[in-house]
Design goal:
Blueprint (H helix, E strand, L loop, with lengths): L1 H18 L5 H4 L9 H12 L3 H14 L4 H13 L3 H14 L4 H13 L3 H14 L4 H17 L3 H15 L9 E12 L2 E12 L2 E12 L2 E14 L3 E12 L7 E10 L1 E3 L2 E13 L3 E14 L2 E14 L6 E13 L5 E9 L21 E10 L3 E10 L2 E11 L1
Helix pairs in contact: 1-3, 1-5, 1-9, 3-4, 3-5, 4-5, 5-6, 5-7, 6-7, 7-8, 7-9, 8-9, 9-10
Length: 413
């Protein structure tokens, strides 16, 4: 569907490019020459309109090889490649063209689109932004850039910037932007964290514009008997420079040394865009109160988005204030996650963690309410979306002789 939207916007650009000769380099700043075979150019365009993308590709290729300075042929060739989802070929071609014609802003748009489709979001943002900055006088080309930026920021979870470019696109098209609606998600998950242990989880989320609220419930059992229940709530508010999250957890269980217990945390996540990189150097402070001790924690959670990779690191430092005299202690733990976008919109994750994370809150917000010091672990995860609104997440890790299995199903509506 997104491809159709972009094609519908791109068609007038191609049509205009083929019905009038390109401007001289001094006027347009993009270089190029007047087409000498307008009939073949029009025929290729008609094949694109008829859905004969492969035939149009061959015609555009013949034109650009015969007339290397014919930028209309190059644009048409990229158009045909993108329409057939030949994104790798398109990216290679647009890369060469931008080296030769760095001032041609339309080539930035043609390069950004396949990057967006391949989930290389930081690069897509960069090239759409370059196109928007270089073609303010071209309303149609600028419209493509603004719409592309809106889609990209939406995929990055940055609502305010998404809305800014959505409104800019609406102003260019004179078509009102669609009104935002609440978005809901429901998740059920099951985990086997060790021998004779199991965990059942339910979560409900709702987001509207810059706000997101999530509620959760977890029931943990040992030897098929209830051991501990956990109820959580968290709210996120987005601002232009950063996101702010506040959360709270209530726990109750049969171990009177620990429960009842409560925990609260606050997390600040700056959003930094640097060229074709996205940086999110988050910090979190947490306080947990158990029956016989309190835990104060500070965490640094930087995240880097590069190409189709998300690289996350978490360093946690905690101080346990025991009610028993001279029994206080400190702990340090760290986590690493490398996630990569894969074919069919799936995401593969590689996980690593080490240190003593007892009584800590990890990077996902889970409470490690246990007396057992965890050893280093290695894990792998896979996120598989399907039928537009559903997704399955599977995770497995190994530490010493113990294994953890986790699976969840989420529906968005």
């Amino acid at each position: 569907m997104r491809l159709l939207v972009f094609m519908a916007v791109l068609l007038p650009v191609i049509l205009f490019a083929q019905s009038a000769p390109p401007l001289p380099q001094s006027a347009a700043g993009g270089g190029g020459a007047v087409p000498s075979k307008p009939d073949l150019l029009n025929l290729a365009y008609e094949n694109m309109m008829a859905g004969n993308y492969a035939k149009a590709e061959e015609q555009y290729r013949s034109l650009k090889e015969a007339e290397p300075e014919n930028l209309s042929a190059h644009e048409g060739y990229l158009w045909a490649l993108n329409a057939q989802k030949k994104f790798s070929v398109s990216l290679k071609e647009s890369g060469k063209l931008l080296k030769q014609y760095p001032a041609n802003s339309q080539f930035y748009n043609y390069r950004a689109y396949p990057l967006l489709e391949k989930k290389r979001l930081p690069e897509a943002r960069y090239f759409y932004l370059k196109a928007a900055q270089n073609q303010a006088a071209n309303p149609i080309g600028n419209q493509i850039s603004q719409e592309g930026l809106a889609y990209t920021y939406d995929a990055l979870g940055d609502y305010l910037r998404y809305d800014r470019h959505l409104q800019a696109n609406a102003a260019l098209t004179h078509i009102p932007a669609r009104k935002p609606k609440p978005e809901f998600s429901s998740t059920v998950a099951f985990a086997l964290p060790g021998k004779d242990k199991s965990s059942l989880n339910f979560a409900q989320g709702v987001g509207y514009k810059t706000w997101h609220l999530s509620l959760g419930y977890n029931d943990f059992s040992v030897n098929q008997k209830h051991f501990r229940s956990l109820t959580s709530a968290a709210v996120v508010k987005q601002f232009i420079p950063f996101d702010l999250k506040a959360g709270a957890i209530l726990m109750d269980g049969i171990d009177e040394r620990v429960y009842p217990a409560k925990q609260a945390d606050i997390r600040l996540t700056p959003k930094l865009y640097a060229g074709s990189l996205v940086l999110r150097p988050a910090v979190m402070a947490s306080f947990s109160s158990y029956s016989r001790f309190d835990v104060q924690q500070i965490s640094f959670l930087p995240e880097l988005l590069w190409r189709d990779l998300t690289i996350s690191y978490a360093a946690h430092y905690s101080y346990m204030d025991n009610k028993t005299v001279d029994a206080d202690s400190t702990r340090f733990a760290q986590q690493v996650l490398i996630a990569k976008s894969m074919p069919w919109n799936t995401t593969l994750g590689l996980h690593y963690g080490s240190g003593d994370n007892c009584w800590m809150v990890d990077s996902s917000g889970s409470v490690m309410d246990t007396f057992e010091q965890q050893s280093a672990y290695y894990g792998v995860s896979l996120l598989v979306p399907f039928l537009n609104r559903y997704s399955i997440y599977a995770y497995h890790n190994v530490q010493d002789n113990r294994q953890l299995w986790y699976a969840s199903l989420t529906v968005r509506y």
